[in-house]
């Protein structure tokens, strides 16, 4: 026999499909949820339903939003002529947590990848070129991951936008709090090449 | 400003309260859920609602069930005169995964703990004594965690049941400080087979 009633097994199976949870941690989480039924399980069910009903992609930048256009794209204050290009919404949130960028975003939805058959049409790339023209963008800041696919995509975008606006990318170097002994050779090389006068 | 619309921030905050997930993994999980809206987010919301509506404690043993009495307590086959006492439902599931015990269970709902002020009345202990008499139990198998509180509770139960039925406990095969839910089935099987009179 199964260990738990059908409804509970169904919930465990679904929870186990979340990133970061396996079958065992899903079981623990479900037992915890059942104990905290009123405080956590019901509110969670309702919050999920609300997000399922309301969450959608911003038609302008690809951010997650509940309206047609996201808060950042709707805010006139953020229209400063710079556009920050990120791979996905998690990266946009990471940039916003840093709180240092005051322009708007463009979420690609991934990176170019010959191996996975992802070409420019699969990403929000044509829309980027169009936005640069329509919104009078003067600088596009590429905040792509420092992976091979991320850097390939960065170079592709730089080529596409050549002559239309300036294209910059996040500096590469030693992370704050980082110790040289734990850094890879690539990072040290990049940091040395980009050294600045103190 | 917050990084995401209110509905999504609410969901992230609730998800971050699950055991095994922190704020960062909760954000990742929520973005994943939004991408898999039809396949995972909606079914999960519905499964949680179903469990919130149906899950309850078995009135006999304390197992999680959707009826009045759990499957194990309803099954005549499991009435073999032995009762396995566990601390919580996760431990009951761990025993069932081992698949070696064919009797019924009694879920204490914790262990005695002077430090936390948990006395016999806070646990399902009076009910255990009553069941031993009512159900003609000949052997009570203590499958409590090999922690100090677990073993204190085991000795308390052995004293309570002295002269009423034989009381055995899982063999020392359970590693000291270990918790049942984290053990492999082989160890649980070996420990059950090597149970000794207290």
Folded structure, characterized:
Two copies of one chain form a homodimer. The first copy, chain A, has a four-stranded parallel sheet with strand order 4-3-5-6. In chain A, helix 1 packs across helix 2. The model of chain A has no long low-confidence stretch (mean pLDDT 91). In chain A, strand 5 (139-142), helix 7 and strand 6 form a beta-alpha-beta unit. Chain A folds into two domains: 6-54, RecR Domain 1 (Helicase, Ruva Protein, domain 3); 64-169, Dna Topoisomerase Vi A Subunit, Chain: A, domain 2 (3-Layer(aba) Sandwich). Chain A has eight helices and six strands. Chain A is an alpha/beta fold and 198 residues long. Chain A is globular and about 65 Å long. Chain A starts with 5 loop residues before the first helix and ends in a 5-residue tail after the last helix. At the A-B interface, helix 1, helix 2, helix 3, strand 2 and helix 5 of A face helix 1, helix 2, helix 3, strand 2 and helix 5 of B.
Provide keyphrases for this structure.
homodimer; 198 residues; alpha/beta; 4-stranded parallel β-sheet; two-stranded antiparallel ribbon; 6 strands; 44% helix; globular
Brief sketch in words of this structure:
By secondary structure, the first copy, chain A, is α/β, with parallel strands linked by helices. Chain A is 44% helix and 11% strand.
Topology:
The structure is a homodimer of 198-residue chains.
Chain A: H1 6-15, H2 23-35, H3 37-54, E1 56-57, E2 64-65, H4 71-74, E3 82-86, H5 89-98, E4 104-107, H6 125-134, E5 139-142, H7 148-160, E6 166-169, H8 185-193
Parallel strand pairs in A: 3-4, 3-5, 5-6
Antiparallel strand pairs in A: 1-2
Helix pairs in contact in A: 1-2
